[in-house]
Amino acid sequence: MAMKKKLAMSGIAGAMGLSLIAGGTWAAFNDVEAATNSFQAGTLKMDLSEVDGPYTFNITDLKPGDHMTRKIQFDNTGSLAIKDVLMTIEDVQFEDYVPEKGEPGFNDAWAEEAETDVLDYLDQFTVDLIRVGLEGNDSNYPTNVLLEASLKDLYLASDSLYGQPGNSTDVSAARQAILSAAPDNSRLVDDRLRVSTIANEGWEGIPLDPSDEDQVKITVSFNDDVEDTYEDGTYKQNKFQGDSADITVSFEARQWDGQEYDGDGYIDENERTDTNR
């Protein structure tokens, strides 16, 4: 991808050769200076920082009905304005717990179905993404990015990017589910969720001028299903006891489109995300 550049153009200095006639011979004085053009590529860099606690969802001993919320801040630490930030589930490392003789649950009805896979497990969780505004205040420019989407669907919707498990029917259904859960379809870009500011008072993305961070609030809930039970009255969700998953969520910061520049010196516009420029 071609990046927008900071362009530093040096002055072009040249000297004409001066010829003198002396004693019927030609003597040439020649001064040659090279013309130097300097091009320096800008940097596109974003850092994640915690807002209310650590940037992690590594919670143990979850039970149905539990939920957790994290606020993640995006800081632009490069030299170029960031157009947008795209989020996706990049990878899930799943561990299935099946009780063996002598372990808790071995004699329970659910133990016979305890062998589950990553998609079964992720389907037990619901995700809400709410961008909380430029200053991180819930009442300041609140925007719902995704409402009550299955973690399984969010995972499968990235299939074309990361080759997640699941057949084409699963992936197609997951993408449709994500579309239905996203109030604003402009939030979807190449099967990923755009979680940065969009068209807020003429600005979007994460500019350097004016300097301003962006935040997104993410809530993950463990669904509580008390309707589906075995004959002995125990919940079928019991089969997920002891299961665990390490989920890698990636955020990609993208540059603005390139532009024609005719002047000399620094391109101030590359620091901005003014939609009217």
Sequence-ordered SSE layout with sheet pairings:
Blueprint: E1 5-9, E2 18-22, E3 25-29, E4 37-41, E5 46-50, E6 67-76, E7 82-95, H1 118-122, E8 125-133, E9 143-150, H2 151-156, H3 159-162, H4 168-181, E10 188-189, E11 192-194, E12 214-222, E13 244-255
Antiparallel strand pairs: 1-4, 2-3, 5-6, 6-12, 7-11, 7-13, 8-9, 8-12, 10-11
Account of the 3D structure:
- By secondary structure, the chain is mostly beta strands.
- It has one domain.
- About 10% of the residues lie in helices and about 35% in strands.
- The chain is built from 4 helices and 13 strands.
- The chain has a 5-stranded antiparallel sheet with strand order 5-6-12-8-9.
- The radius of gyration is 28 Å and the shape is elongated.
- The N terminus is likely disordered.
- InterPro entries: Peptidase_M73_camelysin, Signal_pept_SipW-depend-type.
Give a brief description.
Pfam families: Peptidase_M73. The chain has 277 residues and is mainly beta.
Which key features would you list for this structure?
277 residues; mainly beta; 33% strand; elongated
What proportion of the residues form beta strands (DSSP E)?
25-35%
Oligomer: single chain
Shape: elongated
Tell me the series of helices and strands, N- to C-terminal.
EEEEEEEHEEHHHEEEE
Based on secondary structure, the structural category is: mainly beta
**Average residue-wise pLDDT:** 74
Return Rg in Å: 28 Å
* Separation, N- and C-terminal Cα atoms: 22 Å
Helicity level: 10-25%
Q: How many distinct domains?
A: 1
